[in-house]
Amino acid sequence: MTKIQNIVKNTENTLIPFYTRFDRVFVKGKGHYLYDIQEKEYIDFSSGISVVNMGHANKVVKKAVKKQLSKIWHISNLFHIPLQSDLSILLSEHSFVGKSFFCNSGTEANETAIKMARFIGNQKKDKKNKILALKGSFHGRTIAAISATGQEKYRKGFEPLLPGVDFVNYNDLRDLQDKFDDTVCGLFLEAIQGEGGVRPLSAEFVEQAQNLCRKHDALLIFDEVQTGIGRTGTYFGYQHFEVQPDIITLAKALGNGLPVGAVHTTPAVCAQIPTGLHASTFGGNYLAMSAGIAVLKLLDKKLLDHINALSKYIKNLLTELQEKFPKRISDVRIIGLMIGIDLIGIEVGKVILRLMNMGYITLRAGENTLRLLPPFTIGKTEIDMFVYALEQIISV
Ligand SMILES: *Cc1c(COP(=O)(O)O)cnc(C)c1O
Question: What is the pTM of this model?
């Protein structure tokens, strides 16, 4: 048995079979490079699903966490943890002046936001407890999060789900208007649906969403778990629109690989939250915070400019490719370094495998969309190489 076959067998023998996995084992990462157990080199166009945005084993983050490792790791939220305030201030600087809660994942951040919206709504006179979310959305895997996720495949088999959730057709102003009333306590949006297929919201839809939330006294919640931390060429995805969210939820790239989740909200919302309402044992511990602070310090205007320059570059190449192969690529959507390529007449799973054999790690999304979420360390040369490889695959 080969080394890999042995590892695969061990996975099968020891792990709950929630995942289907590729037969690859990565043992080292550096920037946008990955190395597998056979020392083969790959270029990562996935960032571990938009987690290592600053690159694998980022030096600055590593230095910060290493320094923290030798001081204190964990103490619990029974005590003040000054690094939490430091990270919250950085979040405020990059989004809006507000207050934060720290947890460990995206699903937990959304779970927290659901609880906040429900609790605040239930205090008001017209029993406000309905949550609205969009069809095609993804908000995580806990029962509450799948209850607010508008995709059947994540929900099936777990009924009864959390009641009081309704789904609006994506970008459908009429449907949003129809489903909104005074019983709505919160509306969940992704500025650009990630798992749903890299699908951006329209400016009109977001404007309408904000108006309806204000009119009906509901919280406007942006799930920035995938679109946050520079991914779309702005600090957060909602910044592509003229909108002021009441809550943003974060995770994925916030810790560049250390588990950090966050909820950031306005002082007005905070004023309605009593102590004891929610908690997390691990959330906001020193190690996680040291990573988050290092990441947000790296996330500056200069980095955004770099992301947007690369975005333009890849847009030109992919648009050309689409024009050359209209029977293989039906649409390309590029927002910062969040990229969706709709394939036709060729199965995206096969394309991903072929790219992997050629040394490129990519992702899928939606129905048949090839999704790219490269680390921000990526350069034009790597993009050229990737587009060339993709052309080889789709031109046959
Ligand atoms: C990944 C993701 C989540 C879930 O985050 P986990 O850390 O896996 O719990 C939630 N919302 C969006 C938009 C995501 O992309």
Answer: 0.98
194 CA to middle of ligand 1, Å? 9
Instruction: Decide: 47 and 390 in contact? Cβ < 8 Å.
Output: no
Ligand 1: nearest atom to the Cα of 110 = 10
Q: Which pLDDT score is estimated for 162? A: 97
Q: Cβ(282)–Cβ(95) under 8 Å?
A: no
pLDDT digits (tens, 9 = 90+) for 347-356: 999 999 999 9
Q: Which pair of tokens denotes residue 189?
A: 């949006």
d(CA 111, CA 119): 12
> Residues lining ligand 1, CB < 6 A?
105-107, 110, 138-140, 190, 194-195, 223, 225-226, 251-252
Helix (H) or strand (E) holding 114: helix 106-123
106 C-alpha to ligand 1 centroid (Å):
4
Q: What does DSSP say about strands 363-365 and 329-335: parallel, antiparallel, or unpaired?
A: unpaired
Residue with CA nearest ligand 1 atom 5: 106
Ligand 1 centre to CA of 140 (Å) is: 5
Ligand 1 mean position, distance from CA 107 (Å): 6
What average pLDDT does the segment 227-240 reach? 98
SS3 state at 371: strand
CA torsion 296-301-307-309 (nearest 10°) is -170
Q: What angle do CA 168, 171, 172 make, to 5 degrees?
A: 60
72 bridge partner residues: none
Beta-bridge partner residues of 365: 369
For tokens 């230095």, name the residue: 63
* Ligand 1, atom 6, residue with closest C-alpha: 106
- Ligand 1 centre from 3 Cα, in Å? 32
Confidence of residue 385 (pLDDT cuts 50, 70, 90): very high
One-character DSSP codes across 34-90: EEETT--EEEESSHHHHT-TT-BT-HHHHHHHHHHHTT-S---TTS--HHHHHHHHH
What angle, rounded to 10 degrees, do the helices at 59-69 and 286-298 form? 150
**For residues 125-144, average pLDDT:** 96
Would you say the C-alpha torsion 204, 206, 209, 214 has a positive or negative sign? negative
Longest dimension (CA), the chain: 67
